[in-house]
Every structure is written in C-alpha cells, then in structure tokens.
Write a structure and sequence with these properties.
heterodimer, A: mainly alpha, two-stranded antiparallel ribbon, 14 helices, 2 strands, 7% strand, B: alpha+beta, Beta Polymerase, domain 2, Cytochrome-c3 Hydrogenase, chain B, 3-stranded antiparallel beta sheet, 21 helices, globular
C-alpha cells in the first residue's frame, strides 16, 4: 500500500488535466465550428467578444448559466434531470485510456500532508510516467462500452420530455447508435489484430513504423463514418435534425441542461477524433516525438484538430441522409464491409496465399451481390414508374 | 389530343368562344345566358340545378376538355351598381376553368338569391374545389351541399361573420372595441383543443394506433406560419392535413376600400418574394378594364424587373430547399446572390422586396442613368455561380437520394389539383403563359421553357434552376434591346398622369387632380388576367362597377392549390420527405392566405 496515495494523486492530477483540456476544448470547439462554418459560408461568425471573438465561449457560458431552466409540466422530472448527466459523463471519461504522448520524465517534489502522516516520495525525484491517465489492457473494450452508455442519455431525454419531437429524436438516435455500434466495433478489430493487443498504448506503439490507416483504409473509413453517426454529426444528425424535429431530443431543454447536451456532443467529437488518431493515425507518433514528449502531444492534438476540421467541413457541405437510408447504410453496407475487412485482415496476417484466395472470394461475392442489387433496383424502379402513371385519384 | 402532345408540339390555336356553341348544342337553352365581358373570356350564367351537369360535360365529355379548375370564388352582388344587364342575383359564385387543348378560359357564373344560399359542391368532380369552396363558405357564408368538410379555412374557427360580405366591416375601428369575457375565452380555449376526428383523421388502424404530430405553425421547416397535422405510423405519414390562414390579412377585402391606384403596394405583399410580379398581374387586369395600351419601353422595363424578381425568388427557394434537406451552406451563397439582384432592383426602384414600382399605364419613373452597367455586371456574374451551385447542390448524391422519386405526382394529378408553374412543368408538361399567351410583349423574347420528368422533388428543383438561366437570357435581351420612348402611357386613366402638360392646359390639370386626389374611375366591367408569376399562375379577377375603387378583388394565387396537394404528395413517405416536399413546392404563406 506504500504507493497507493502517489498513484491516486497522479491519477487525480491527470484527470483534472484531461477534464480541463476537454472542457476548454469543448468551448473552443463550438467557437471553431462557428468560425470555420462562417468562413465556408461567406460570413464572419462571432468576432465581437475579445480579440477575434476568442472570449465568445465565455460569454455563451455566462448566458447559459443565467438562462431560465424550464421543465415541461408533463415531464418525468427525475429522468429529465438525469438525462444530460448520463450523456455528458461517458463523454468525459472516454479518453481515460488514450495515451496523449510517449512516456516522459515527470519531476516531483516531496509533499507531506499534515495530519495524515503520509509522506510522498523523497525530497526531489523523477518518475517515468506515460502521458495518459491509464494503460488498461482492454482499453478498446472500455471505449466501446463507455461509448454505448451515452445512448441512454439521449433516449431518456427524448422520452422524459413529454414532447413528440423529442421522442422521435430519441427513438431515431437509439436505433442509429445501436446500429452503428456494430460497424464501429468491427472496424476496430483490424487495429487490434495488427497490434495483437487491446491496449491503446500497445496499439500506438505498434504503429511506430507505419500508421494503421495504410494497412486498414477500409477500416478507417468505416470507423470514421460510424463515429459520425455515433456522435450525431451531419450528415448523420438525424436525432436533432433541425428542419424536421426542431431540435430532436433536446427540444425541451434550456440553460445549462441544454448546454450539457451540447457539451457532450462536442466532447464526444473530440473523443472520437482522439480515438481515430490513436487507432489509425499513429496516436502521438511523429518525427522526434519520442525524444521530445511534448512534441508528441502536439502531434496528437494536431491530428485531432484535423479530424475535427473535417467534421465541420462535412457538416457545411452535405445535406442530411434520410433516417431509413442511414439505417440501410449501416446494416447493408458498413456492417458487411467491416466483416469482410476483418476476414481479409485475418487472412493477410496468416498467409499470403490465403489472403489472395479470400480477397478473390470476397470480390466474387461482392460482384454477385451488386449485380443482384442493381437488378432488384431496376425492377422496383420500373414498378414505381408504373405507379406514377396510374390514373388520377 | 392529349396533354403530352401539347407539351411536345406547338401551342394549339387559341379558341375562346367556341365552347359556347358546343354547350348550346348539348344543353339547348338550359346552358344559360351569355354575359359579354371586357377580357374576352366567355362568361356563362348557369342555373344551380344544371351546374353539375354542365361542369361534368366540360370536364369529361366535351372534345378538348376543360381539365383544370383554375379558380373558384364568389361576389357579393347586393350593393353593385352598373350590373350591365346581368341576371339578377344576391351572390354569384364564379368558376374559372382552363383548357390546355384550347388554350382557353371559361367563366361560369351561378347566381344565387337569399341571405345564406347554397349550391351543389364540385368536390366530386375536382378535388381541388375542396379548399376553394371552403374559402367561399368562410368568406361569404355560402353553403356547398355535399362538401366533405365545410369548415373555416382562412379564419379562426371561432370567427363571427363572413368578411367578404358587404355588411361585414372592413376596418377594426368599425367593429367596436375588442372584448374577451370569460365565456368567450373558454370558447376560444375549447376551439384550440385537438380532436383528430374533426380533421378527418383516424386514431386507430387495423392493427396499429396512430400518432398525431402537430408540425407548426411555429416550425423551422414550414417557411412561415403553416400548420400541418400529421397522422403517423412510426415516422411514416398516413395522412397530412394542412391548416392555413395564419397569414391571412384580408388582402381581397382591403381592395374594396382602396382606390385602384393605392391598392398597388398591397399587391407587393401577397407573394412577398415576387415583388413587382404581383403589381404586374394586378395592373394588367386594371389596364384591360380601362383599355390602356402600355408603351413599349414600359413593357420591357416591366419584363426586366419581373425576371429579376423571378431570379430573386428562385434563389430564396434554392437556398431554403437545400437547407430543408439538411445542407447548411448553400442558403448563404444564394442569399448573397440575391443581394446582388436586389442591388440592381434597388437602383431602379429604390426599394428591395416591396418595390411598388409599376403604375396603371406604365412604371413610376424611367430607368436610372447607368442601369446598363449594373445589369451587365450581374449577367456576367451570375452564370458561373449557378454552375457552382449545380455541383454543390443539384449533383450532390445525398440530395439526389433525398429528392429523387420523393413526393411525385402524375401530370393528370397535377392538372386535377390545379398545380401551375414549375410544379406543373416538373411533370413534363411545357405550359408557360409567357409562351402560350404572351403578355406584356413576351412574344418578342427568345427563351426556353424547361421541363422535367416525374414530377418529384428533384424534378421541380431542376425546372427552377433552369428557369433562372432562362430569366437571365430574357434580361440580357432587355439590356440589349431597351426601346426608347415614354415610360408611361398618356391614356387619361394612367395614374398618376404624366405631368409635363399639367401646367399648360386645364383638361390635363383636372384629370391629374382627380386621378391623384380621388383615384382614377375605371369603367364598369370585369377582367381576369393571369401571368406566369414566380411560383405559378397568378391572376387578378377584378370587378369594377364604375367607381374609384374596385367592387371586388379576387387574387388567384398559385401557392393556394400547391399547399392543398401536400397530403397527396406526402402520403406513404416519412417526415424528412415531407420537409423536402414542402421545400420543393416553393410556396409563400402570404401568397396562400392573402
């Protein structure tokens, strides 16, 4: 039990740091989204508060704190209050297992806590510590399981609001998140097999020579699309589709409760970007990163920022998919593709000949499936044309 | 001849009056009496008993039938002077029919006696008659026997009286102070409760319970105060009932207390995206009544501005349509371009959305110096932008998936329900009044009428996008061939009269004084002139009894039937599709409710 307190304190300090980074990141993510979208839309965006509008998130926070908190009369109050909390906590803890940089020397000094009679370490000392909260050997499993908790928050918010728009949003998101979790889960199997480990630290270390996105382009694409659906980002922002459902599951929320949902969405964006960078873009790896740990962190943040920018860009460019087509995409395209990807990866890891055979077989299956699909589509299109020509009703 | 042949071939010769002989041949003297009118539309008074027979004959049996119920309205005749030998009646219900094969209109009138008379419904013959008859009931208190759901449509269900009756006050100050005693408040509250049965909706199906969703009147996707009551099975739309009237301002009633001249700015606000296009429809009717010939230069100025407004209106539609299917950026680009259009319009008219620029007999002023540069700049600026939007919006795979095959209707259905404009042309039917009945000198211009196949959301979009290019062509021809000459007619009824000679002879001075102080006195008669407005065919049916103000102003707007068809288009689709359909129909609620 000697080193119990040092570990707890180290973890606490790191946790505070991560939450601080995420909370600030969330605030400036909203700012970045508005400014970047404005740039893409020939507008200015918020530029009044502070230099370049940099204090805008602060102003927003103050505004939201002082807003009236409304609870609809017919709402289930306990669940209504609980839902934003359930949504935001998984978003905050999901990054616990992601390494932020290489192992780095951390300089400490002795601290004595009066009354407890505990002494931490010597006078001055240095410990080697990974730049990350925890290196769990089932890190990826942890991420998948924590991520799937978030759906409860959205569903409960939609259900407890006593509002049909909110309920439709909640139903849509439960179906969407559950469906896309399958493709998401299968798309990360590739990196796991390549790294022979579920630990995020090991996965990053396995990419010391080549990023996994090179070996796993399909997996990376599926992962990215599925995470977009998981965090309800355009073009998969069905649950809160403004033009259809006014604001979806958070229609009835106001003030800080609303901002918690907002916070969860943006923090999850940062989170999935970090995971994407870790799994496929080499995490913190980059030139000179091992020698200068802070540089590794900078690389990591740069990769996250690139992914976030891409999300904003996508949102500004594309319309929204229709809900049933989104489900079709998840179940009929992404899931089979992810399965095939797993099979191909496994074959490639075992033997080159096997790899060739599997790829050949899959291509054959794919061609047959596509042909059958095209044939059915043409048949149904003909049927539709016939309906259109039917006499007036 | 079928409609498709008209679309493909040249336009058939106009045959307005032939139908009267055919009717007399079929019905003999029962056909009714013919009334001469100034606008050349054959007008026939039919008795209420033979109405349905005549209508059925005209729609289904006659060769080259009258397929479209273009308009249905009524006139309160009780105070009308100068009836010019028309049959006696207290109320007259007026049906305007449109035949594509003949390229002709037909006006049927039914004279009714009594305070609250009734007549048979036309809803079994034309589904589009449903809303029109409800409006007549709402406004005049005339009952249509056999109507499936004769309820108020534009006014709230608790409204007392029927506003377009002459005894109903036109101003709030004539109505006495507003009071809300408790029992009235309770009645109003009661009227707000939702009972599906009253909307013709079912609560339960064979093996499912339906959910009712109240979309609007405050909803980001409805483009204004429109309410749609949805009967849902999951997210699938089983039935949709639009509820309109939230934007009703009584534009037709206002017409009855404005002079012919001072009513012009009110028309601007009817289709508030169409600007001068509304002025044009109204003024063409007035000019037809007054017999005014508009000089060439004024006509070309009118056409140029009208086409600018067509582009401005279509740009608003383009952006909001993209936004309705979830694309966030295009609307900003299109509004930026609309500002360009407005900067030209502003330079000419001094106003942007509501220019109030056309006058009886011409336009307010000549074009400003340097207008050519502005117009030429825009002509150069706009086509590359359109090309870029094609890539961004029209060729976007997600947008195509969201709109192709969604909310389609057949050509027959479109005609049946009274669709006009781009929504009709999207069904592959080339019907545009600018070509078929060139008004204001459109026959002097070279342009094409775009059409699309399938009549779905994407088809409607394709038509509008191409129409912007064609409008630009027309504007370019206006720029190159602007004729010299006066910008206003020197007809004595042109208002305000041309001022040059007022200080030289007393006749002109007096005319000027009267025309400005009282407004022009338009000769008695009635006229309907329809134009191809931004959203479809817009027509003003004006009745004058020889006074300084209209006796009756009827505004036939394209958006009204376009909204009525929502249920037909959206049944079986999902909520997101409904939003795409609403976006693609391109309506303006002020244009629906007037």
């Amino acid at each position: 039990m000697d080193n119990f307190w040092p570990i707890v304190i180290e973890a606490a300090i790191k946790s505070v740091f991560i939450i601080f980074v995420l909370a600030t990141g969330f605030a400036y993510m909203t700012f970045a989204e508005r400014r970047v979208a404005a740039l893409l839309q020939t507008r200015l965006g918020p530029n009044r508060v502070g230099p370049f509008g940099l204090l805008q998130p602060l102003a927003d926070a103050i505004k939201l704190i002082f807003k009236e908190e409304l609870i609809p009369g017919g709402a289930d109050k306990v669940i209504f209050l609980l839902a934003p909390v359930i949504t935001v906590i998984p978003a905050l803890v999901i990054l616990a297992v992601v390494p932020w940089g290489p192992t780095a020397p951390i300089h400490c000094c002795q601290v004595t806590i009066p009354g407890l009679n505990i002494t931490l370490g010597g006078a001055y000392f240095t410990i080697q510590s990974g730049l990350g909260l925890a290196d769990v050997n089932v890190g990826l499993l942890y991420i998948l399981s924590v991520a799937s908790i978030a759906v409860y928050g959205v569903v409960l918010a939609g259900w407890s609001s006593d509002n049909k728009y909110a309920m439709l949003g909640g139903i849509r998101s439960s179906a969407q998140m559950v469906s896309y979790e399958l493709a998401l889960g299968l798309s990360v199997v590739g990196p796991i097999m390549l790294a022979q480990s579920m630990s995020m630290v090991d996965i990053v270390n396995a990419q010391s020579r080549v990023w996994f996105v090179v070996y796993q382009p399909v997996g990376a694409l599926i992962f990215y699309l599925a995470t977009l659906a998981e965090v309800n980002r355009a073009p998969f922002d069905m649950p809160e589709a403004e033009q259809e459902l006014t604001a979806g599951y958070h229609t009835e929320y106001s003030g800080m409760k609303f901002s918690l949902f907002f916070m969860a969405e943006y923090i999850k964006m940062i989170g999935v970007s970090a995971i994407f960078a870790t799994l496929f873009l080499g995490g913190w790896r980059g030139p000179m990163a091992e020698q200068v740990p802070l540089l590794g962190m900078a690389y990591f943040f740069a990769k996250i920022a690139a992914s976030l920018f891409f999300m904003i860009w996508l949102r500004s460019t594309h319309p929204r998919l229709r809900y049933d087509r989104l489900m079709a995409l998840g179940w009929k395209v992404l899931l089979p593709l992810a399965l095939a990807n797993v099979v191909v990866t496994a074959a490639a890891l075992i033997d080159t000949t096997l790899f060739a055979i599997v790829v050949g077989a899959l291509v054959l299956i794919g061609v047959v499936a596509l042909a059958a699909y095209a044939w059915r589509r043409r048949a149904s299109a003909g049927g539709r044309a016939a309906v259109a020509q039917s006499p007036a009703t | 001849m079928s409609l498709a042949n008209i679309a493909a071939g040249s336009s058939p010769p106009r045959d307005q009056a032939g139908v009267l002989d055919e009717l007399r041949g079929r019905f003999g003297d029962d056909a009714g009496t013919v009334q001469p009118t100034g606008d050349g539309i054959p007008t026939l008074w039919v008795s209420p008993d033979s109405l349905q027979q005549v209508m059925r004959y005209l729609k289904t049996e006659i060769e080259r039938p009258y397929r479209m119920l273009f308009d249905l309205t009524a006139i309160d005749e009780r105070l009308r002077a100068n009836r010019q030998g028309q049959p006696d009646s207290d109320f007259t219900v007026v049906y305007h029919l449109l035949s594509f094969e003949r390229n002709a209109d037909l006006r049927l009138k039914v004279g009714l006696k009594g305070d609250y008379p009734s007549l048979p419904t036309m809803t079994d013959l034309w589904p589009a008659a449903n809303w029109y008859e409800r409006e007549v009931w709402d406004m005049f208190g005339l009952t249509f026997d056999g109507h499936p759901r004769l309820k108020r449509i534009l006014l709230p269900p608790t409204w007392q009286g029927h506003p377009l009756r002459k005894e109903h006050p036109a101003r709030a100050t004539e109505m006495g102070p507003f009071q809300l005693p408790e029992d009235k408040e309770a009645r109003e509250q009661e009227a707000l409760l939702f009972h599906p049965e009253e909307w013709g909706l079912k609560r339960h199906g064979d093996d499912e319970d339906f959910m009712f969703l109240n979309l609007g009147p405050q909803h980001p996707g409805t483009h204004g105060v429109l309410r749609i009551v949805l009967q849902l099975d999951g997210e699938e739309i089983v039935d949709a009932v639009p509820d309109i009237g939230y934007h009703h301002r009584g534009a037709e009633k206002m017409g009855e207390r404005q002079s012919w001249h001072t009513y012009i700015p009110y028309t601007d606000r009817v289709d508030y995206l169409g600007g001068v296009m509304n002025n044009l429809a109204y003024l063409l009717s007035v000019e037809k009544l007054a017999g005014i010939e508009v000089p060439d230069r004024a006509q070309v100025i009118r056409i140029m501005l009208a086409e600018f407004f067509r582009i401005a209106s279509h740009l608003v539609w383009y952006g909001t349509f993209a936004q309705d299917v979830g694309a966030l950026s295009p609307v900003f680009y299109m509004f930026t371009d609309r500002e360009r259009v407005f900067s030209v319009i502003e330079a000419v008219c001094g106003a942007r959305m509501h220019p109030n620029w056309f006058r009886i007999g011409g336009v307010v002023e000549d074009l400003p110096n340097g207008w050519q540069t502005l117009v030429a700049d825009f002509i150069k600026y706009f086509p590359p932008r359109l090309a870029e939007y094609d890539k961004l919006v029209m060729q976007n795979a997600i947008l195509k998936a969201r709109t192709q095959g969604i909310g389609g209707c057949s050509l027959d259905q479109a005609v049946e329900w009274g669709l006009t404009g781009p929504n009709l042309r999207a069904c592959g039917f080339e019907w545009d009044f600018r070509k078929k009945r060139p008004y204001s000198g459109y026959d002097q211009f070279e342009f094409d009428i775009p059409t699309a196949q399938g009549g779905d959301c994407y088809g409607r979009a394709v038509v509008r996008v191409e129409e912007m290019r064609q409008s630009l062509r027309i504007i370019e021809q206006c720029l190159k061939n602007m004729p010299p000459g006066p910008y206003k007619s020197d007809h004595p009824l042109a208002t305000p009269p041309r001022k040059e000679r007022t200080m030289h002879d007393i006749e002109t001075l007096i005319t000027h004084f009267l025309g400005v102080a009282w407004g022009p006195v338009i000769p008695p008669g009635e006229a309907l002139v329809s134009i191809e407005a931004t959203k479809g065919i817009n027509g003003y049916y004006l009745v004058s009894d020889g006074s300084t103000w209209p006796y009756r102003v009827r505004i036939r707007t394209p958006s009204f039937p376009h909204l009525q068809v929502i249920a037909l288009l959206s049944r079986g689709f999902m909520i997101p599709d409904l939003l795409a359909i609403l976006g693609s129909l391109d309506y303006v609620l002020a244009d629906v409710d007037r």
